[in-house]
Amino acid sequence: MRTAFLFIVILALSISAAAQQQLTVGTEAPAFSAEYLNGKPLELNDLKGKVVVMTFWSTRCLICHNEIPKLNRMADSYKGRDVVFLALTMENESVVNPYIKKNPFRFDIVPNSFGVVLKYADTDASGRIRMGFPSYYLIDRKGKINLRADGWDKTSNIDTRIAQLLSE
Question: CA 165 → CA 17, 53, 108, distances in Å?
Fold first, then answer.
């Protein structure tokens, strides 16, 4: 009886651990397929060999709004180099298009990215999604997560890491 109880406890803990997800630095970035705002297909695997900066954002996020000019400047500074900037949002084109008319991005926007969020967000034991906005992922040329950051004013750290990755 005691052995059966112990087995059930271990099984429950194993299932709970499997339900939790937390991507860590050094792990392979989850592959995904999506569409850019212009309708062209996006495959993360097609970007191997480049440094990829992903920011998960929302039009309703004030911090995200304040980070756009910094990200635009950073994207401009790496133009023509092997760096790709992606702004991923769960919102659709009817929400994103009016927003970007007033707040232009100088790098690619990927709307309708709920499926990508599911791959990158942390989940707890109950399967609830845990992702704040903005959230940043920096992926190295080999497709591994090099940096993960959430919240305000992370762009200087991202910029430093991009420079390091390009010099390798």
Answer: 32, 12, 21
